Amino acid sequence: MGKRKGKDGLQSPDKGAKDSGAMKRGGKDRLEIRGVQVSQEASWLAFNRRVLLQTLRPDFPLLERLRFLGIWASNMDEFFAARLSRAFLQERGSARYVALMEEARDQADEASRLYREFLRELAGLGIHVLEPAQLTKAEQQYFGAYLAEEVAPLTDLIRPEAMADLAPQALYFAAGNGLMHHLIRLPESLPRLLPIPGREGSYVRLGALVRMRSDLFVPGKSQLYEFRLIRLAELARSRADWDELPEALEARLDGRVSHLELEDDFPPLWAETLRVALELEPHEVFRLPPPLDLRFVSTAAEDGPASARFAPAKPERAKGFLKDPWGYLDRRDLVLYHPFEDYGQVEAFALAAAQDPKVEAIRATLYRIGARNGIAEALIQAARAGKDVAVLLEGRARFDELANLEWSLRFQGAGVRVLPLPAKKVHAKALYVRRHGQAYAHLGTGNYNPVNGRLYTDLSLFTAEPRITHDVAAFFEALEHRQAPAPAVIRTAQGIREALLEAIAGEAHKKGEIILKFNHLTDPAILLALEEALRQGAKLHLIVRSTLTALWREAQARSLVGRYLEHARVAAFKNKGKWRVWAGSADLMPRNLDRRYELFFPILNSRAKGKVLELLRAQLRDDRNAFILTPEGQEPRWGGKHDGQRMANSR
Length: 651
Fold this sequence. Notes:
It is a single chain. Strands 13, 14, 15, 16, 18, 19, 20 and 25 form an 8-stranded mixed β-sheet that branches. This protein has an 8-stranded mixed β-sheet with strand order 29-27-26-21-22-24-30-31, with helices on both faces. Strands 5-7-6-10-11-12 form a 6-stranded mixed β-sheet, with helices on both faces. The model is unreliable at about 1-15 and about 15-30 (pLDDT under 50). The protein contains 19 helices and 31 strands. The longest helix has 29 residues, at about 95-125. By secondary structure, the protein is α/β, with parallel strands linked by helices. A hairpin with a 6-residue loop joins strand 26 (about 570-575) and strand 27. One of its GO terms (biological process) is polyphosphate biosynthetic process. One of its GO terms (molecular function) is polyphosphate kinase activity.
């Protein structure tokens, strides 16, 4: 990402990116995109800047704006742990890589400034984050005892010689007199923001308390200096099966250090010692005013007064569906738009299947399901009731492997068959029920996760349409027998790309129209096809939440960032006025289409199709949560009347 500023001071695409125009042929007759190209890493950082800008939304309550600061901080850790991996390993030291670091550093500086502004605004709500010097003597004594009893026994004291083995994301302090003699790692199990007893709404940071009582952590008196680091987080075995997964997880922390944060007063000699030991370049080290790691602000956002947060949502339920889901689906398909339509209906569907004596078999794909999950519990209940229950539990869901390993043990103990992991990661979202010889299915765009189901915008399709249910059953049958799925109507793996390329080519004319809504759109073949459709005069509407690696002046591209995380994946094609609509689990990235089993399914029912099209058109009109993406940069559209995140009947 280059230094040039786009509209509203936002970063423009990569320096030296190619301008838009007709496609041209490169070496070996290979077609090259002529639109302005942006690297995935630069595009993702631009998305995280959009997240950071939500802290300035005039229409958001104060604590919701603060919450976005915590989201930005968590996203930035993910960037250095996972999103940066390819560039770190392949482009490190290049001008483009250095520009990425400059943009990340610029955002970090802005976040630090915003934090200090928030402290002043929070005071108006009666929320205060105090320094230890502002505590009374009695409060200082209390926290001294807390440090001695709760913190110090769990704190690691590390010799500087071991600095190359430091853990990622933990909060560290360096200590010494003249030379760096000790490193302190604070326990990650303890909260970073502590309420002050007797002072409602007042907090003190754990790191500040440790600095106040350094004598409890290191021998003698010493000033402490804060720092933290991030490592690339990759499993040693990308194709680990369940019996290999524990060992693969143990090796996760062997990733190289990709980022170091130091408080701005960190002694220069110590800083250089750390940098060299961790094998980092100067531009990979950020000096920032403490506190580092702003994820802790979510505590204040959650505990603050309800008047400074969004009013609780009141999701709707489909009339008659939960009373008799089987009879309902025998008559019609059902599309739900979460969270405005209750995600709990998906869990209730699974529970109804578990408790219905006529249900013979249940199948499910589970990816990121969390520590508590109603669908998983329903599957366990069904297995204990003697039903045939099998799950494809994806053990390689990044950062959720350990939680899924625990679920695999619980499933097996209850009699749920955990299917073997295929060579490709399974990212599909499918639930299959066979009841008295009749098949039913749920297909979704989001994970079967109760937290995400209430915070992410996603689509659910419930259906008894034989063409769909037959394909879902065949999908699970293939996985169980370690075969490559080959559905007839639904698409999976490379078949998703093939179907989309065919549909895009069908719109490559002056009356053609395409609407694509995805989190990520980076697949070169699909981008080339879209460019050709544009060249032939088609209208192209893109709603891309995070990463879009080609921009054209002829296309209408936007990103929505609002109260809920945009997560649905949808493709719509005008088809001479008879719209064809698809939805599914896949983002349009090579990894999703080549190295995963996703499911992309057609919306066949006309009423359901119309509902999805209405949602897409509402999001194309959005002027409350939108950023317009152009080759020159990104421009916010706020303060208007059209909130495209909401259901039409609730606007």
